[in-house]
Design brief:
The protein is α+β, with helices and mostly antiparallel strands. Helix content is 44%, strand content 13%.
Amino acid sequence: MTFEPEQFTQRLLEWFEIHGRHNLPWQQNPTPYRVWVSEVMLQQTQVATVIPYYLRFMERFPDVHSLAAAPPDEVLHLWTGLGYYARARNLRACAQALVAHHGGEFPEDIEAVTALTGIGRSTAGAILALSRGRRHPILDGNVRRVLSRVFGIGGDPSSAAVVAALWLQSDACTPEVGVGAYTQAIMDLGATVCSRSSPACTVCPMSTGCVAALEGRQEELPGRKVKRARGSREATLLIAETDSHGSIAVLVERRPAVGLWGGLWSPPQFESEFAALDWCRREIGEPEVESRVLAPIHHAFTHFDLRLNPLRVRCQPGAGVHDGEDRLWYRLGDPPRVGLPQPIRQLFERLRAAESG
């Protein structure tokens, strides 16, 4: 016999009281600001990965005013390794909007919260529910999975009909009282028990009334998105290095705000080795020694795979080639605090280790 929404909610809250997570950093002093930062960090990222980033972020930016006033490079630097860097850019832009238009406080009205940069309906609902106890349903990835399985909601989860059905179910299950505990509980159940693969149905409080468990449809639910053909891209990464204050420095440029690794710093990319060397001669100077091709870098994005072929050249830059607003020499021994894509940071760490070794 399947659950009615009220039965589901009651059983979930009983489970949460004993088995839920109650000591996460953002659960301590859960202000709208602290909850908001955690919710954004947790998008597409697991709790264990987020915690150390969150603690460092809160230490540097304890409130919305400090985040709004921060240089973008410092925000991106603290985000390096978390991925999906648009989240960091949106956080800073949203903080500036909160300071400029809302006195540094989150609005009480959910429509006003969803109007802020980078905050959708589910994130807005979570902020208001977890920090202020306001009754708003949420529908993040964990909640979608739990509701799809327990109530047997199949179909393409990205289709308008399925999304609407899930929102209706989420609203039906969200209680009037104890909404903060309920919101954390349903996220916890999805993260720790009703996982994407190999869900722990034997210890799940919903197993006796869950459609997926009763009908053996755990693999089928939730439904799968219609697959798109996965693309691939390839580029040459110019590692132009020179001596700087007794250490190797590599030329990096700030990438455009929109697009791949937007706003982060990276060595220039080119379509070919020839184009990279030609640019090097024109912009920096003739390479001093023969170029060397390093091991390729493979990185998977959501919809395509990227292969970067690092081309290492030694240069003696001309007098006009110096640090600027969108170009700087990244000293491996004394790195500046700027945001780097994770594969580039790992490459520089290997170069630094080779230099010191």
